[in-house]
Amino acid sequence: MVSVKIFTADDTSGAAGAAEGYDYLIALKKRGVNIRVVNNSWGGPVPSQALYEAVCAAEAAGILSVCSAGNSHHDADAEPGFPAGLDCESLISVAASTRDDEMVSFSNYGALTVDLAAPGESVLSTWLFISTCATASAPSCHGSPTTTLGAPDSITVCSPSPAPTASSSRLIHGPGISRPVTAMERGTCS
Fold first, then answer.
1. What tens digit of pLDDT does each residue of 100-150 get?
2. Domain parsing of the chain, residue ranges
3. The pLDDT of residue 23 is above 90
4. Can you tell me the distance from the alpha carbon of 73 to that of 67, in angstroms, rounded to the nearest whole number?
């Protein structure tokens, strides 16, 4: 696990800082560090060409991007947030679900742009309180491809993103729920 600081002390820099962070991770990968998945538990409303190019460069380097879909209860198909709304094959946009596998009321959603959901309500974290936000769902989903990619040789990944989406279970409305154990049990993607 590599931690990369992308924000300044006043919480600015956003996409520019993230693009620089991606450049750093890609450089590490080229030097032999086994970087496979980047967690993006942040987002904003403004698209960035530099961030798009960085995420695409990460894809070319074999790095998957897992992004929080957002916390504004917007249809991400009509009002995308970024980086979750970037059009990259190796990007997984993650909505937040409840303990009962329902979409939480605040989570962004989208039939075309949100790939799956993961726990985002009452999530224990290193913060001093229990987190309830889509930001908490991305790390949970991040574990699915990380677990699958780190599994024995019998587990294969056919493309950058199938393991978490192929192993998800359906919600009544919205994307599937991330199921890392199911991904491991399947042994391969289809």
1. 888 888 899 999 999 888 887 776 666 655 555 555 666 666 555 554 555
2. 14-186
3. yes
4. 16
Concatenating the DSSP letter of every residue in 131-190 gives B-SHHHHHHHHHHHHHHHHTS-TT---SSSSHHHHHTPBPPSSSSEEP-HHHHHHH-S--
Q: Which residue did the predictor score with more confidence, 157 or 182? A: 182
Residue 15 is predicted with a pLDDT of 85
Cis peptide before 83 (omega within 30 of 0): yes
According to DSSP, the residues that pair with 70 across neighbouring strands are: none
Amino acid making up residue 36: R
- Give the integer Cα–Cα distance in Å for 167 and 148: 10
Q: In this structure, what token pair is assigned to residue 145?
A: 């491809």
By the 10 Å C-beta count (0-12 exposed, 13-18 middle, 19+ buried), 78 is classed as exposed
Q: Over the stretch 1-10, which tens digit does the pLDDT of each residue have?
A: 888 988 888 7
CATH superfamily of 14-186: Peptidase S8/S53 domain (3.40.50.200)
